[in-house]
Amino acid sequence: MNSLNLSAWVSPIRTHPRSLAFRKPSFPLAAPTKHRCPPARLGFSVSAVLTKEETVQEDNRPRPAFDFKAYMLGKAAAVNEALDVAVSLRPPLRIHEAMRYSLLAGGKRVRPILCIAACELVGGALPMAMPSACAVEMIHTMSLIHDDLPCMDNDDLRRGKPTNHKVFGEDVAVLAGDALLAFAFEHIAADTKGVTPARIVRAIGELARSIGAEGLVAGQVVDISSEGISAVGLKELEFIHLHKTAALLEASVVLGAIMGGGSDAEVEKLRIFARSIGLLFQVVDDILDVTMSSQELGKTAGKDLVADKVTYPKLLGIEKSREFAAELLQEACSQLVGFDPEKAAPLVALAKYIANRQN
C-alpha cells in the first residue's frame, strides 16, 4: 500500500462542512478573549480551574471556582454505572465478557463527558445525553480493540492491561468490537428519553458519518497507507487526525448539543470547538508517545516511531508541536464566547485538560 498517492485520498474526502484546513502555526497567539485558555504547557499538570476573570460575576460578586476534579469524577462515575447496566453480563457469556473487559477497563471517559457537558451547556439535562455518551464510549472502545489487533497496530497493552485479543483471541476481539459498534446505535435509539425523534435521528446520522468511510475509517486507512512513506506532509497528517481522532470527539460534542436542544448556530460553534480539541488531542498524543514511558502512558510508548509513522513531532519538532497545541487550545476556547461562562466552565476545563494530560 506504500505506493498509494495520499493526495488522492485527502482531497475528495470531507467529513463535515467547514472542515478546518491546516494552518501552519502562527505565533504569538491572538489577543485574549473572555474564554481564552492560557498557552498549553505540556508536561505541566493543569489544575483546570477557570481564570480570575471567569470566576467573577458581572456584578463583581465572587463565585466558587469550578472544581474540575470533582466534576470529572462525578460524571465518570455516572457514565461507568450506565455502561455497566447497558452492557450487562448475559448469554452468550464469552462475547459479553470480551465487550465488558475493554469497555469497563477504565479510561478517562473524555468523550462521554464532553457529550454530557455540551448537552448541559445548551440547556439540556444529563439523562437526555447519557445514552449518546455511552454510545460514543462504546464506539471508542471498539476502535481501540480493532486498532490493537495484529493486522493493525499489533499492540499488547491498552489502559494498563493486556489488549482484548491477548485475552480472548483475535476472533472474539473482532466480534466484541463489532457488537459494541452495533449496540451503540441501538442504545441511542431505544434508551434516549425526553428528546424528540427528529433530534435522535439527526444525532444517529452524525455519529454514523463520524465513524464511517468519511470519518474514523477514512483516517485509519490513510494512516495505514502512510506508514513508511517519507513524502507525507502536514496536510495529509492533519487529514488523518481530523478523521481518525477528531471525528469521534466532534461527534461526542455535537450529539450532546443536539440532544440538549441546541440551535443550529450553537451546534456549529461547538462543532468547531470539538474539531479543535480533537486535533489538539492527537498533537498531544504524538508528543507523549516520544516523551513518556509505557508505564506512564498505560500503553506501548514509541510505537509510532517503530512503525515509521508520520507525527507532529517528526514534522515540526517537539517545541513547535507544543506551540501548535497552544494555538489549537486557544482556538477551541474562542468558540465558547457567547455561552454562559458558568455552563461553559466544564468544556473550558476539559480543553485545558486535553492540552496538559500526561497519558
Automatic annotation (TrEMBL):
Pathway: Isoprenoid biosynthesis; farnesyl diphosphate biosynthesis; farnesyl diphosphate from geranyl diphosphate and isopentenyl diphosphate: step 1/1; Isoprenoid biosynthesis; geranyl diphosphate biosynthesis; geranyl diphosphate from dimethylallyl diphosphate and isopentenyl diphosphate: step 1/1; Isoprenoid biosynthesis; geranylgeranyl diphosphate biosynthesis; geranylgeranyl diphosphate from farnesyl diphosphate and isopentenyl diphosphate: step 1/1. One of its GO terms (cellular component) is cytoplasm. The keyword Kinase does not apply. GO terms for molecular function: geranylgeranyl diphosphate synthase activity; metal ion binding. Transmembrane segments: none annotated. Gene3D superfamilies: Farnesyl Diphosphate Synthase. GO terms for biological process: carotenoid biosynthetic process. It holds the Pfam family polyprenyl_synt. Coiled coil: none annotated. Its cofactor is Mg(2+). It comes from the Eukaryota. InterPro entries: Isoprenoid_synthase_dom_sf (IPR008949), Polyprenyl_synt (IPR000092), Polyprenyl_synt_CS (IPR033749), Prenyl_diphosphate_synthase (IPR053378). The keyword Transcription does not apply. Keywords: Carotenoid biosynthesis, Isoprene biosynthesis, Magnesium, Metal-binding, Transferase. PANTHER family: FARNESYL DIPHOSPHATE SYNTHASE, OS07G0580900 PROTEIN. Belongs to the FPP/GGPP synthase family. This is Geranylgeranyl pyrophosphate synthase, chloroplastic-like.
